[in-house]
Amino acid sequence: MTGTNLPATIGPASVSEMLRHGRNLLIANPAFQKWAASFPLTRLIAERQSNALFDICSGFVYSQILLACVRLDLFSKLAGGPRPCAAVAEDLDLPFDATQRLLRAATALKLVDALEGERYGLGELGAALLANPSISSFVEHHALLYADLADPVALLRGETATKLSGFWPYANRKAGDPAPAGGEAYETYSDLMAQSQADIAEDILDAFPPTGRRRWVDIGGGEGVFASALAIVAPEVEAQLFDLPPVAARARSALQRRGMLSRVTVHEGDFVSGSLPKGADVMSLIRVLHDHDDETVRGLLARIHEALDPGGTLLIAEPMGGGAGSDRVSDAYFNFYLLAMGRGRTRSVAELTALLEAGGFSDVRVVPSRRPMLANVLVAQRV
Ligand SMILES: C[S@@+](CC[C@H](N)C(=O)[O-])C[C@H]1O[C@@H](n2cnc3c(N)ncnc32)[C@H](O)[C@@H]1O
């Protein structure tokens, strides 16, 4: 109930909402479920619903099976070709029965292929995982998230001291707090981000070709994977990045290792309290805004507006959700990830557009990209 004693829900607001509401009431009725299960057409629908619900229930189990495969390095052990279960058991140092259970579970998830004579080889997804080692780091990283999600209601109520907030040292800062010192705190997250950035960088540069640009500053640019890709794709563009001092130091070492230090300028600073490098005609925020609350985002957009050349472009790339067709990856997965991290949320294109327009940007548009579920690309012009 609200403060005025009105019920919090006042019923469907449109014909389509009314129809949806009616359909859901029917589905929730056990007598209807029983009836529906006895007719071929409705039986198919009922089956689809129970399968979908079962999939939601079992999602955690599936991910723990994957974690067991990763921790036991199962996919490398099958990389040389199919092997009998007994040989895999010996290699994994697991009892035969447990190995068989794991291999059969992994087969059901397409991670492994079961072959004649209780032999097992790499499955389609196991092979893909082997080709992308960053996925294994991601899977391992999820152990922290799942521990934080053990009591999701306590997490929603803000009663959980989460492990993920320790992983992201900037997540619990309030405006004006100094950036936490100590290089180690930044190491694990910077590594994880750098590993997953290469594909995203390629997607963004294909969606928004940098040709004809003069100077591009990647804000929150981490270890410079994106800035390096930019410098390679468009050597005529001055590639720059900006990040917190400990991360900028890591970026310099990483760029040096990649032989790119002379081609990327690294700026250090704090976009919550300091100013940004001036004179760019493009600035980007890749997987940055969703880590922050609206107040910080407004402040950052104001700083970008001040630093960017008039007519310059701001590019935002991150998972975006919240629209009418709510999205599993951004609205379910990333939103709960960010909740455990302790700060930020995914925003819809409409919400980002409103923040951008209020910050003095115009012509906001989505640029079609290869994997919008990981990073939808939005560009806006500085007025
Ligand atoms: C989720 S990571 C994304 C890194 C990179 N853009 C990518 O996509 O891999 C967010 C980045 O924003 C940086 N960051 C967070 N708070 C910052 C601040 N106040 N000033 C400057 N950089 C900040 C972090 O250090 C980190 O590198």
Automatic annotation (TrEMBL):
Positions of the O-methyltransferase dimerisation domain: 55-131
GO biological process: methylation
InterPro entries for this protein: COMT-like, COMT_C, COMT_dimerisation, SAM-dependent_MTases_sf, WH-like_DNA-bd_sf, WH_DNA-bd_sf
A molecular function GO annotation: protein dimerization activity
Native source organism of the sequence: Rhodoblastus acidophilus (Rhodopseudomonas acidophila)
Residue stretches in coiled coil: none
Keyword terms, alphabetized: Methyltransferase, S-adenosyl-L-methionine, Transferase
Domain O-methyltransferase C-terminal residues, every copy: 184-362
Name assigned to this protein: Demethylspheroidene O-methyltransferase
